[in-house]
Queue: 2 jobs
Job 1
Amino acid sequence: MKSTNNAQKNSTKRSPALIILLVLLIAAAFFVMSDAPFIKGARDTLMQKLGYEAIDQSAEDGSDSGEVSEAGGGNTAEAGSFDLEAGELPEWDGNHYVKVNGGVPEFPDDVYERAGIHSGKLDPFEYYGSLDDLGRCTYAYGCLGEETMPPEGQDRGDISSVHPSGWAKAQNWERCHLIAWALSNENANPSNLVTGTHYLNYDGMRPLEEEVEHYIWNTGNHVLYMAKPWFSGDELVPRGVQMIARSVEDKGKGISFNVYCFNVTPEAEIDYKTGIVTTSEQAAQDARTYVINTRSGVFHYPSCDGVKEMSEHNKKTVTATRSELTAQGYTPCGYCEP
Ligand SMILES: [Zn+2]
C-alpha cells in the first residue's frame, strides 16, 4: 500500500490530469457494477434512456417461458388453450370427472407470475376473469393458502343474488363456486359462480376442494389452483368445470391434479342453452293441462296463484307434456314448479 501511495503521490506531482482520469474511471466502474439501490436505480434509468431494458428487471419478469417448468407444469398454456377444445368436450362416461393432460397440472404463465414462483417470494392471491360477452364466467385462479381462506368461525355469506349464465328457476340448479368459498372466502362474486348440478357441485368438485382445504390446514402450505368452466359454442350452462391444483412448497407431493368434472345429472336431460332440465320422470309424464303466459313464456299448473293474477289476454291453456313445452322454449314457473 505504501508503495502505491508513493506512486500516486508521484503521479499527482507529474500529471493532475491523470489522477482526474483515474477517479473518473473508478467512479464509472462503481456506477456500472454497484448494487447499491440508488446507484442501481440511476443506472437503470440511464439504460432505459439509452434504449436498453433494465437487465435485472427482464430477468425477473419471467416472460421466458422456460422457467415455468421449475414450478412443475412444463408447458405454458395460456388460459383457455388446454387440451380440451370447446365442441370436443368429453362425453359423460358415468364418472364424476376425467383426467386432463394425464392428470398433470399446468397453469397459464400469469399464475406463476402472480404467485411469485419465479422470484422465489411466494405471494398468495386470487384472480377472477371477467365475464365474457354472453355473461359467462371465464376462469378463476390463485395461489391459495390460509391467507385466502375465510377466518375461522366466519359464516358463509348469501349468494342468492347472483344468477349465473343459464340459470333457470325450478330446475334444481346450484350456484357452483369456481374456487370454493372455503378456499377463497368469496361469496356473491358473479365471476366465481356458475350454473351447476348437484352432481357437479357436491359429488364432483367438493371432494377435490376438501382435499385442498384439508391439505392447507394440515400443512400451512400453499396450492396453485385454477377452475375453468367449459361451454359448448354459445351455450349458457357449462358442460363441465376443469379443476387444476398443485401444492407449492412440496412441489406437488401433497396436491396434484388436473381434471374435468361433468356438469350433468344422471337420469336427466339438460338443455345447456336454456338451463331447462328434464328428468326422465318428467319426460315420461303424460300430457296434462298447463296454463302458459304467452307474454312471459312461463307455464304453470292451472291451480297456481300466478294464473289467477295473469291477464286473460296473455293466458293460454294447453294440453301437453312438460318436455313438449320446454322444447318449444317455455319456462316452468318457479313458484308452482310444474
Ligand atoms: Zn306457477
Job 2
Amino acid sequence: MYYSRKRLMADLPEEMTAIWSCTNEECNGWMRDNFVFSIQPVCGQCRALMEKSEKMLPVVTNTSPNQVKR
Ligand SMILES: [Zn+2]
C-alpha cells in the first residue's frame, strides 16, 4: 500500500493551480479554486476571508478510481 501510494505521488505532474489562501497570517489554510463554490469563500479553519492565489499542485482529475480509462 505504501509503495503504490508513493509511486503514484511521484508520477503526478504538477501545475500552477488557482487556489484561495487564508488572509490570516497565523493560519496556513487554503483550498483549490475547483473546490470553492461561493464567490467569496471563508477559511475552513479560522473563518477568515480568503484571497485568490496560485500554488504548484499535483494535477487532479475529477475521476474516481473505478472510472479510470486504460
Ligand atoms: Zn484560516
